[in-house]
Amino acid sequence: MKRIVLSCVLALFSLAAGAVIETYQFDTPLQQQRYHAFIEELRCPKCQNQNLSGSDSAISKDLRRQLHSMIMEGKSDIEITQYMVARYGDFILYRPRFSSQTAVLWLMPLGLLALGLLVWWRMASSRKRVQLSADEVLSQRDQERLRALLDDDAERAEERS
Amino acid sequence: MQRLKLFLPLLVFVLLAAVFFGVERRVMTGDYAPTDLPSALIDKPLPDFVEPALSDGRPINKSQIVGELFLLNVWATWCPTCHFEHPFLLKLAAEGIKIVSIDYKDEAEAAKRWLAEKGDPYSLTLFDEDGSLGLDLGVTGAPETYLVDAAGMVRFRYQGALEQKIWDKEFAPRIAELNAQGSTP
Lengths: 161, 185
Known about the structure:
- The structure holds 2 protein chains of 2 kinds.
- By secondary structure, chain A is mainly alpha-helical.
- Chain A has 2 domains: 18-92, Orthogonal Bundle (Helicase, Ruva Protein, domain 3), CATH 1.10.8; 105-160, no CATH class.
- Chain A has helices spanning 2-12, 29-41, 58-72, 77-88, 103-135, 140-160.
- The longest helix of chain A has 33 residues, at 103-135.
- Chain B is of the alpha/beta class.
- Chain B has 2 domains: 1-34; 44-183, Glutaredoxin, CATH 3.40.30.
- A 6-stranded mixed beta sheet of chain B has the order 1-8-7-4-5-6. Chain B has a two-stranded antiparallel ribbon with strand order 2-3.
- In chain B, strand 2 and strand 3 form a beta hairpin.
- The A-B interface holds A 45-46, 48, 57-59, 62-63, 66, 85-89, 91 and B 34-35, 37-41, 105, 131, 134-141.
- Chain A: This is Cytochrome c-type biogenesis protein.
C-alpha cells in the first residue's frame, strides 16, 4: 500500500519529458551530455517558443541530426554555436549573446532593479524625514504660542466654571 | 502635484495599451509578423554548395547560378502554400525574372510531375533531398524566397507565399535599387 501511495506521489512530481523521437548513438557519455545540453539551449527556428528537444517540426529534426553529426565529428561547442548562429541568427540561442541588439534584454532587469531600489530608498528616506520632524523640539516661538493657547484655554475653562 | 502622481498608473496603462494596440494593428495589416525570422544571410554571400539538378542529377555549384540578379525559391510538393504561390511564380518568370529553385526535402518523381503538370517557372531546380542546402541557407520551411544580387550577395529573404502585393512592396523596390546601383558602379 505504502509503495502505491509513494509512486502516486512521485508521479505528481515527474518532470516534463522532451518529445524527441529519434535516438542517437554516442561514443562517450560526454558527447551525449553535450547533445542534450544543446537541444535544450537551442531554439527551434520555426516555432514561437520551443527548444529543439521539445519540437517535432521537420527543421528541428534536421538540426538535431546536424548537431549529432557535428558532435560525432568532434566539433567544439563554440564551433557548433557559430554554425547555428551563422544560419539562424541570434534567434536560435535561448541565451542570446550580448550585443547592441540584445543590450536592452540583458540590461533591462538591472535597470529595473536599480529603479526599484531608488524608489524604495526615496520612500524610506522621506518616511524618516516625517518622523524626524515630528520628534523635533519646538522652537522658542512655537513654545510661547503653545503656552499662550493653553493659558487661553485654561482661563476660558475657569470662566465657564 | 501629489494628486497628479495618482494618475501615474493610468498613464502607464494608456502608454502600454497604445504600444500593444499599435503592434497588434501592424500584425493585422501584415506589416509585421512575429513569426518572421530575420535571415542571418542578409548582405552576406550565398553559401557555397554542390547539389544535383532535379532534371538530370548533374551536380551544380554556386558559380553556375550566380552572375545576375535572381530569386532563389524554396519549395516542395508537400507544401500547400507552394501550390498557392506557383501561379505567381509563373507570372514572374513570364515577365523575365530569373528564378532558381530548391526542391526542399522532397521526392524527385513527385517534384518532376509537379513541374510538368503545373508549368516550370524555374531556370534551374536544385534537388535538396536531405535539406542540407536548406540548412546552410537557414531555411525554416517552405516556401521561402531569397533575393540574390549579381555579385551573389543575399539581399532579402521572404518567408511565405509570394504574391503581387508582397512583390510590389518588398521585392520591386529592392530590385530597382540594386539595378540602379549596378548600372552606376
